[in-house]
Amino acid sequence: MTVKERMLALLSEGTPMLSIEMAKILNITKASSSMTAKELNEAGFIHVCEWRHNPKNGGNKVYAIGTGVDVVKPSLRSPNRNEPFKPHPDVAAAWMMK
């Protein structure tokens, strides 16, 4: 069996997984697992069903078998990110009065 076939067989058991989790179970490298999952996703065999929070990169994709719409990565930026910096009045009072 190829890695792609093994990954599809694993996901067909019904449990959505991260590529890191699949790498451990299939006894392959994380890079190989990530690349294979990406290829299967682009081919339409699997889809991103959710994102798990990760402070390093914002989130990790959780894959599930079957065609489906990929969930969009959540935004880390706050909606007010484009507003100019406004210091807290108590902190700024000393230098604002000069």
CATH superfamily placement of the domain at 3-65:
Winged helix-like DNA-binding domain superfamily/Winged helix DNA-binding domain
> Helix tally?
4
Gap between N and C termini: 74 Å
Low-pLDDT windows of residues: none
CATH topology of the domain at 3-65: Arc Repressor Mutant, subunit A
What is the CATH domain class of the domain at 3-65?
Mainly Alpha
SSE map:
Layout: H1 3-11, E1 17-18, H2 19-26, H3 30-43, E2 46-52, E3 60-65, H4 89-96
Antiparallel strand pairs: 1-3, 2-3
Helix pairs in contact: 2-3
Q: If you had to describe this structure to a student in words, what would you say it looks like?
A:
This protein has 98 residues and is α+β, with helices and mostly antiparallel strands. It has a domain at 3-65: Arc Repressor Mutant, subunit A, CATH 1.10.10.10. It contains four helices and three strands. It has helices at residues 3-11, 19-26, 30-43, 89-96, and strands at 17-18, 46-52, 60-65. Helix 2 crosses helix 3 (30-43). The model has no long low-confidence stretch (mean pLDDT 85).
